[in-house]
Amino acid sequence: MNVAVVIPDTSLETRARRVAAVAARQADAVDARACFPREAVDTMIAERLLGIQIPVSLGGEGAGFAEIAEVCSILGQACAASAMVFAMHHIKLSSLVEHGLESPWHTQFMRRIAAEQLLLGSATTEGGIGGNLRNSICAAEVAGGICRLEKDATVISYGDHADAILITSRAHADAVSTDQVMTVFLKDQYTLEKTHVWDTLGMRGTCSDGFLFRGVAPAEQIFPKPFAEIAAQSMLAASHLLWSGVWYGIAADAVARAQAFVRAAARKTPGTTPPGALRLAEVSTMLQTVRSNIVAGLKAYEEAKADPERLSSMGFSVAMNNVKLCSSETILAIVNHAMLICGIMGYKNGTPFSLGRHLRDVHSAQLMISNDRILSNVASMLLVHKLDNSLLG
Amino acid sequence: MNETIRGLLVKFGNLPVSVDQLQDDSDLYTAGLSSFASVQVMLGIEEAFDVEFPDTMLNRRSFASIAAIEGCVRLLTDREAA
Predict the structure, then answer these.
(1) Under an 8 A CB cutoff, do B55 and A175 touch?
(2) Smallest CA–CA distance from A378 into chain B, residue
(3) Rounded to whole angstroms, how far apart are CA atoms A87 and A53?
(4) Domain A227-381 sits in which CATH superfamily?
(5) Which residues from chain B sit within 8 angstroms of residue A172, using beta carbons?
């Protein structure tokens, strides 16, 4: 029997584009019904995108933040919710890759993620902490090698759909609120009781419901490092860079729609420049600013990555915070500009130039870790940290 | 120097525990030192010892314990004197 052998295109970009095609088809329905983008995530699994960050020696592909941010952007151009699920999974995975290699349990878990394409969720927010994830009220109870934890988690994105949850808590019952640890709980080691339903303006498909989390797991599943170090050395950069990748994707798609609108008008009236053309030129500079800012952030991370001290320095923290502030604010202006270009065709749903979903989705950016909180952190650091005035850094 | 640093930690550290109970090598972050409070303590130290923290010292390790802070200040005051 002759079997035709088809060698699939295995470049990361091509695989991401195949997922994006599925995500784009379901984006409006996911948004309208606020449902989890199941088909897009199933395609990510089929394309084995959930394990790409894991080192090759553990069955992954050793992809860096730049490659992952590019995938976030490709998916963001298709469906913001799918892209955000992918980004949040990889933010949690970065904690494992950067801080779990010295622990046999976490290393073995990474092998499992790569082999079984497990989806990781996150539970860092808690009722009563006022949005500051570097504080916890709940505490891990460790006795006889077993860790028990109950947390009023006001947001667990795609909590119902995750295969494991990485959750923060105080290190023990007597620990101060900032003395935190992070623990991995597998799906069969916890229960979730829904307390809040995610019915929001945008990013509706992330299904970031609130839950009362109750878990019991072997204590070896607690990360061997304090959460403060994990947060400073990998989560800060991963969150701001990968979120920014998603946001750039949404903005880039809005601009692509605006450009298609202007070009369609130009083709109908050759010889005259359509009214939106100047605005398109204007918005292209804003998009370029966002892209350059993210690329510079990715470069800064690559350079600092090998040095934990540099990663936890104020200069690095200011730089990453500024990436987030710039991209989350500028994308709002970009989508608004695109709307001005497309006019009523952008305002209406169901046209090739519709921008309502984009506009609602980008509004989440300045709230996922409030920009006001980030600004006040930067403000505090700038009291001692002197800004680097060199052009190339 | 140790006394002055402890005094600044009492004044600006906003710690949930008494500074007297802390050993020189106790982890200040575990004791509850927030990043905001650590900046306030840094400013107090800059003023008290008339030094300026270079960016290479603005990381978690420099403020991880009273002994670490003392080490940084000593390095900076020695540098000034040299």
Answers:
(1) no
(2) B36
(3) 11
(4) Butyryl-CoA Dehydrogenase, subunit A, domain 3 (1.20.140.10)
(5) none
Q: What is the pLDDT of residues A246-295, one digit of tens each?
A: 999 999 999 999 999 999 999 999 889 998 999 999 999 999 999 999 99
Length of chain B: 82
CA distance B29 to A179: 7
Of A139, A203, A151, nearest in space to A365 by CA: A203
Domain count, chain B: 1
**Dihedral pair phi/psi, residue A101, rounded to 5°:** -70, -20
Enter the ipTM. 0.87
Fold for domain A12-116? Butyryl-Coa Dehydrogenase, subunit A; domain 1 (1.10.540)
User: Beta-carbon neighbour count of residue A297 at 10 Å?
Assistant: 25
CA quadruple A311, A295, A202, A379: dihedral sign: positive
Residues 6+ apart with CB under 8 A from A9: A15
In chain A, where are the structural domains located? 12-116, 120-221, 227-381
